[in-house]
TrEMBL record:
An example Gene Ontology molecular-function term: lipid transporter activity
Name of the featured protein: ATP-binding cassette sub-family A member 3
PANTHER family: ABC TRANSPORTER DOMAIN-CONTAINING PROTEIN-RELATED, ATP-BINDING CASSETTE TRANSPORTER SUBFAMILY A ABCA
Organism: Araneus ventricosus (Orbweaver spider)
Membrane disposition: Multi-pass membrane protein
Primary subcellular site in the record, as a coarse category: membrane
Subcellular location(s) of the protein: Membrane
Keyword field contains Transmembrane: yes
Amino acid sequence: MKLKPTLYVTWLRRYKRLKYLGKRHNVFLSGPAIRQQWRDVWMQEFPYPEHKNTKDRFSIVNIVPWVICYSYVIFIMNIMRRVIEEKSNGSKELLRMMGMTDFTYWASTFMNYFIYAFIIMFIVTILYKVPMKASTAFLKHMDFFLLFIVLLIFIASLILFCMALSIFFYRANFATVALIIIYIPSCTLLMTNFFMIDSETSYYPLSVASKLGICLLPQGALLTAFHIISSYEASGEGVGWNNITEFSLIPDINVAMILATMLVSCGIYIVFIWYFDAVCPWQPGVPKPFYFFLT
């Protein structure tokens, strides 16, 4: 590596900068011979290896969560439509009369879509990790199993989000429109305002609570995770189990915190479904009092 030109300074300037001890100062001034010996001091910058500058560089990996979020629009619309139709045509109430518990109903609905999404996400993970044209993988350095876990937790959170939102609607058309209004603009605004351009002035100054609050939304968590993943891919290291807790690009949040927040959001959605499905007055059947969990 080519170094910068050597910097030449006199012994007096060297003395002033490094603040030699008084004893050595006396030695320097003790005689002409010693003074001539220490007259010239040469300094040069310590060499350092070349590195890739990934600051303020938009990577194509940042588009991955955007593509995934938009590709599941039809999927979440089907979830919303099915849950609302079962509520409006009385199928859900009929299952209750036959002895099916609410937990069994919601768990079966979740597993019905999660198994389907499990297969799709496994195929997506393979496509991102297998070398394509020119023998280059899209996410070459990231751990395969960790990528699969991130996508699975995202889709689980997304399914629970749709199920929780369906509680407040009785007609499938209104519910689908409301879902699209909430889901697509939120994904687009988060991407354009925080992660696409000039994230150092828009996203990094946010507090840790605000960043984790964004991760409570399924699309927000996926955008944040791939924002960190893209920096690791650009550096050639990749996200793995050995550096999942490291603070690299964002100084106060890492991939482990994002995954933990996504799991917490799943728990919040489950509690939300359990409570509001029982107390909402526009649900089929007799609603329970708001304090039913205390009795």
